[in-house]
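Methods: example folding runs. The two proteins below were folded one after another, and each record is reproduced exactly as written to the output file, sequence line first and structure-token line second.
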Amino acid sequence: MHPSSCDTFVALPPSSEGQRIIFGKNSDRPCDEVQEVLYFPARDYSPEEKVECTYIEIEQVAHTYAVVLSKPAWLWGAEMGANEHQVCIGNEAVWGRESADGDEALLGMDLVRLGLERADTAEKAVNVITELLEKYGQGGSCMEDECGFTYHNSFLISDRKEAWLLETSGKYWAAERVEAGYRNISNQYGITTKIDKEHPGMREYARSKGWWNGKSEFNFATVYSFMTTARIEASGSRYCEGKTLLEKSNGHITGATMMGILRDKNSGINMEGMFMTTGSMVSVIPTNPALPGVHYFTATPDPERSVFKPFIFVEHANDLKATTSPSYGPDDPVKKKPRFQSKPDRKHELFVKHEPVAAIIDTYKDKGKGIKEGMMKLEKEWMTEMEKILTEGVEEPDLFANLFSNCVQEEMAKYSNS
């Protein structure tokens, strides 16, 4: 499987404006897959409770943090999301020398959600994910299909002060701290010689496999990847294009800048075809802990034809019903063995309303242009409102309990009028 999807970005001061962390990700998935956006409040659990992930059940922890997730509707985990402590995580598929065709275990997307539920800093999320990886492993089909599409994972994780890049190969891993500037990841290993945390057996395993001679400087990407680091910088790759777009706005990167990068089709970052961008996320996190973070999600495919809607963590935030897909419980074809014998309808309310509008935009140039202008006007209005929150804070939290849902309703009303 040749690397073919997903990009995740983070910008920290001094690359970003206004002492803020800017996090962004496009989730590039099969074009017929529905991505939902869900909110789960913080919760306490009894000893011995379990949590049922996509394929396996694992031990639950005593307390989970509130999370907002953008996730393929058929599985438990998430492509990307944030928690109440303003930790953000996105994952990427990576392929290397180690086979990804293992037994069903935790998906990388399960690890994203578990990291968000269990860690209040980026570094703690690295620890959570790597401990779970050691205990349970990673594996299983990453598509709602019998084809057995499998991969290992890299993760970009940020909080209010720093970011971490975590890359895995089976149960082995390396992590790099990013304390300033910008970083982006695509579907290839990117950690080279700067390794700030690692699996204790990672180097010896590579040496035993003949991938490293045990004497030369250890370069994780060179040792564990099919590709050399020169290939990572190859002209025309999405990684290189993403890096160029970040550099173009270096020192002035904002939430709007990140949305523009995620919408860029010439670079391939906004992907089209059998694999396409099915959901997008941008988070704006002030480094000042007294100020809230704002997390924007599309919940619909193609950010160029979608609207980023804001979510803020407040104590009494409500469920996001219009972006919640139908649930099939134990009758879901994903839960029955053999799995994936059929595909139920997973379209949520916003997806259903957005689908014909996206088709109109594609088909009718003038009408489509008018619809897109209306969508972007809505988005700009919300972002202007959120700018006040990002600089002044939230005085009346209950007013924002339905922020994302109210924006979805406005968006759907705009579609109905179209």
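Second run, written to the same file directly after the first:
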Amino acid sequence: MRVGGVATVVAMTTYKTNKQRRGRGRAGWLVSGVAVAALAGLTPAATAGSDARPAWRDCSGQEIPEGMQCAAIEVPVNWAKPDGPKVRLDLARLPATEPARRIGSVLGVPGGPGAKGIDDLKHTAGDLTELRRRFDLVAYNPRNTVWRDKMPASCMRPGTSLSEPHTQKEYRTLVAAMTKAFKACQAADTTGLFAHMDSLSVARDMDAVRKALGEQRLSIMANSYGGVPAAAYARLFPQRIRATYLDGTLNQADGWPDQGLRTLPVVEQVFTRFTTWCAATPACALYGEDAGAVWRKLLRDADRTPIPVTTPEFGEGKLTGWHLRSFGFSLDPGPGNARWLSFAEAVDKARNGDGSGFASFALGNARVWATPGALAMTCADDRGYTGYAQLEKVRRQAREVSPSFGTAAFDALGCAGWPLPVANPSRPLPARGLPPFLGAGSTWGDYVWTKSFTRMIPGSVTVAYDGPGHALYLSGKKCPIEHATTYLTELRLPEPGTTCPAE
């Protein structure tokens, strides 16, 4: 996870160079769609609303856990027009290993948006063997993954390279550029999905999966951005939820600015961990100095005089303080503190005019978060600023909370100019009819998000993981997985205040 304005980067669309990309391990979010698309083969798709059950067959492909079965269903592109065009959603399941004691199905809701739930299940199967005793573990590839694989090439052309607007005129210029890019993407779209990737639509897809499974009520495991459709499902179908486990999930109901403002104090705390570590570590490039003061001076200097850079991927560009605040620092120090060592070296070079340590990641993200095809998966969930006045207000609050990282949020800037109505506006989540939820999150990052979500639902508990990480069950963290298994199996929550030690 990297700091991102008033939000922490968790979206799978975050750009990484080839050297920075994570592998296909449990926590990898940047995944290829080719292998998974082959899993379901030519399995016929059941249609949402019909009485037909999907035809389950053994999955084919690489890295398939033993016993995994695949199928598919079709759902309306536009749920307001159920007889209109359809989109095919691939499903996978690992049947319960103790069928005589089977409780039902647990549906995994992937993050991103754009991550494939079938990939998640493939990589976590070995860590969820206890849960699988009593449940079928079910995964699906949401509609935004279909979009990701089929979107027109024009939708991946950035509308601009993001930067921080400092005047109403600059903001209007940004809005105009993004509106033009969004409209061009929509015009090129042949799937119809551009206008229908909001999380209310995704939640209706989830309910179609429930019907296809023959379940009266769902048990849900959601991670990261998957919390947004999980909240939408709770809003639309509270009576159809048996249990919900939320892992590092966003609280869209509270609004994106509030989520960012909650996170920034945590980012400052982790940054203090970094500066303390650097002061005690001769290998740190800023050893012997006040690393925090060096960083903040670099930000001020870069805002006044941007640092010129050249990259193989993006050519020439300039790094402002906004680029550095948004994409510079990693909350996870990495093995042997390797990421923090690299960060300190990059800061040391940048203050001397060499921004190469930040260039590719910062310029790449500034383009990706202005890409209409990627943003179409999330803007309809009310992610953009309502106007320049809100941007100014949130930026002022962010800088008060976090002198080192408070700034305009790149995701909200990217959604400027969204040409369609916000289909899923942020608003309070009614708790009536919902069972208590279980949450889990890292105290180094997303715990505050998940806690703000679960406290909307009476009786819920959020487990604190005392270490860096994100989407803990995808990372094989044993303690959170044990609590999730107990809760989903027995509907028994841990005591409030429960903490898992770092693993």
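Comment on the second run: Residues 220 and 244 are 5 Å apart (CA to CA).
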